[in-house]
């Protein structure tokens, strides 16, 4: 492969890291997800109220099968229930993270 072409390619919008725990995965993204250092949200529901940890956590926690979310500036850790397989949960997570844009100060 031509080295010049290799360096011109953009990295994927979302890189998935498997964890030792089978129901947890980390998603690394190129765009900042939050202007905070870290947002912790290991909760399942917020009874109709906006999630106090922001739009990323709120959206992910409302997805079927997702039971926990930990949002960092360039990554998010997602925990799913054992009742769902990653093939059922992961496509929606990746689609959301690839499309997510926020106004975050540098």
Most strands sheet: 5 strands, antiparallel
Fraction in beta strands: 25-35%
Structural class call reads: alpha+beta
Residue stretches low in confidence (pLDDT < 50, at least 5 long) are 1-8
CATH topology group? Ribosomal Protein S8, Chain: A, domain 1
Helix content range of the residues, please? 25-40%
Backbone CA Rg: 15 Å
Give the mean pLDDT: 78
The CATH homology group name: Scaffold protein Nfu/NifU, N-terminal domain
CATH architecture: 2-Layer Sandwich
Number of domains: 1
Order of helices and strands: HEEEHEEH
Structure annotation, total helices: 3
Shape: globular
Strand arrangement, major sheet: 1-2-5-4-3
Please give a structural write-up.
This protein has 106 residues and is of the alpha+beta class. The protein has a single domain, classed as 2-Layer Sandwich (Ribosomal Protein S8, Chain: A, domain 1), CATH 3.30.1370. It has helices at residues 3-8, 55-61, 86-99, and strands spanning 14-18, 24-29, 38-41, 66-72, 75-80. It has a 5-stranded antiparallel sheet with strand order 1-2-5-4-3, with helices on one face. Strand 1 (14-18) and strand 2 (24-29) form a beta hairpin. Mean pLDDT is 78; it is low at 1-8.
Summarize the structure.
The protein has 106 residues and is of the alpha+beta class.
Topology:
Layout: H1 3-8, E1 14-18, E2 24-29, E3 38-41, H2 55-61, E4 66-72, E5 75-80, H3 86-99
Which features does this protein show?
single chain; 106 residues; alpha+beta; Ribosomal Protein S8, Chain: A, domain 1; 5-stranded antiparallel β-sheet; 3 helices; 5 strands
């Amino acid at each position: 492969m031509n080295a010049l072409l290799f360096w011109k390619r953009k990295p994927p919008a979302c890189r998935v890291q498997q964890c030792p725990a089978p129901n947890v995965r980390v998603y690394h993204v190129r765009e900042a997800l939050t202007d905070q250092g870290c947002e912790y949200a290991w909760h399942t529901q917020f009874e109709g109220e906006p999630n106090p940890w922001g739009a990323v956590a709120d959206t992910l926690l409302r997805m079927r099968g997702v039971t926990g979310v930990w949002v960092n500036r360039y990554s998010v850790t997602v925990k799913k229930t054992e009742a769902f397989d990653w093939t059922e949960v992961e496509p929606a997570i990746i689609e959301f993270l690839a499309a997510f844009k926020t106004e975050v100060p540098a």
